[in-house]
Specification:
Blueprint: H1 2-10, H2 14-21, H3 25-46, H4 61-64, H5 70-75, E1 89-90, E2 101-102, H6 112-118, H7 123-149, H8 161-180, H9 186-192, H10 216-237
Parallel strand pairs: 1-2
Helix pairs in contact: 3-8, 7-9, 7-10
Length: about 240
C-alpha cells in the first residue's frame, strides 16, 4: 500500500520505487495492480453516481470507466449517460445551453475576477453569470485539490487505458474518503478559500461544441428557464 500511495501521490516511476523500497520490478508491478483492483472496489463505496429519479439504477460500470468528451458520451447510448429530469448539469459556455445543461450567458462578464476588478454585477445576466461562476468555482476547486494531491493526474505514466481510468477512480475515492472522515488537511484548507481557478481553454464566448445534436425546442426551453432564474436572482440581489 505504501508503494502504491507513493506512486500515485508523487507520480514516481517503478525505478524510483524499486530503489526506495528495495523490491524487484516484478514485485512492485504485482502489488501495484493488486492494490489498484482493491481500490476500484473501494471506489464503489466512495464514488456515488448521480441519480436523477427514483427508478434509476445509477450509472453503469461501463460509463464510470469512460474518459470521454461530453458530446461523444451523450451520443452513444451504450454509455448510459444519466440525463437529468427537471434538473440540470452546470456547464461552461463551451457546451450547448439546452435541456439538462445550464450554461452562462455569452458576451457578458463571467469570471469572478471580472467582478472584483470591474465592480458589482449589473443587470440580470451579469448577476446570473456571477452566481453561475461561484458554483462552478466550487467544482473547479474540488478538481484542483485532487490534482494537487495526485500529480499523476497531470502527467500519467504510459499505463494502459484501463489502468489509467482505474487510477483516476482511485484518486477520487481517496479524496472522498478524506473528506468523509473530516481530516484536517492543508490542501483542503487552501482550496476551501474562494480562489478562482480558470481553465486554460474556458472562453465564455467561444462556440459551443454540441449545438447541432440537441433539438431547438430543448434549447428554447432552457433559454426561458435560465431567464426565469436570472429574473429571480435579479429581484434578490439588485
Amino acid at each position: 500500500m505504501a508503494m502504491f500511495l507513493m506512486t500515485i501521490s508523487h507520480n514516481l516511476r517503478n525505478r524510483l520505487i524499486k530503489n526506495r523500497f528495495q523490491h524487484s520490478s516484478q514485485t512492485i508491478h504485482k502489488y501495484f495492480h493488486e492494490v489498484l483492483v482493491a481500490m476500484v472496489n473501494f471506489s464503489k463505496e466512495m464514488i456515488t453516481p448521480p441519480s436523477f429519479n427514483d427508478s434509476s439504477n445509477g450509472i453503469s460500470n461501463r460509463w464510470l470507466r469512460q474518459i470521454l468528451s461530453l458530446d461523444e458520451t451523450i451520443r452513444n447510448p451504450q454509455h448510459n449517460f444519466p440525463m437529468p429530469h427537471q434538473k440540470y448539469y452546470l456547464v461552461d459556455a463551451a457546451y450547448t445551453h439546452t435541456r439538462g445543461f445550464m450554461a452562462p450567458y455569452r458576451n457578458v462578464r463571467y469570471w469572478l475576477s471580472d467582478f472584483r476588478s470591474g465592480g458589482k454585477a449589473v443587470g440580470k445576466e451579469e448577476i446570473f453569470n456571477q452566481c453561475h461562476a461561484r458554483l462552478r468555482n466550487v467544482i473547479e476547486r474540488a478538481f484542483g485539490v485532487v490534482k494537487a494531491r495526485f500529480p499523476i493526474l497531470k502527467r500519467m505514466a504510459p499505463y494502459s487505458f484501463t489502468t489509467q481510468t482505474k487510477i483516476v477512480m482511485t484518486c477520487f475515492s481517496i479524496h472522498n474518503f478524506l473528506r468523509q472522515i473530516s481530516v484536517a488537511d492543508r490542501l483542503f484548507s487552501e482550496y476551501d478559500n474562494e480562489v478562482e481557478l480558470e481553465s486554460d481553454n474556458a472562453n465564455q464566448n467561444q462556440n459551443s461544441t454540441t449545438s447541432s445534436f440537441f433539438a431547438a425546442s430543448d434549447q428554447e426551453f432552457m433559454q426561458q428557464f435560465r431567464n426565469q432564474i436570472a429574473n429571480e436572482l435579479f429581484q434578490v440581489f439588485s
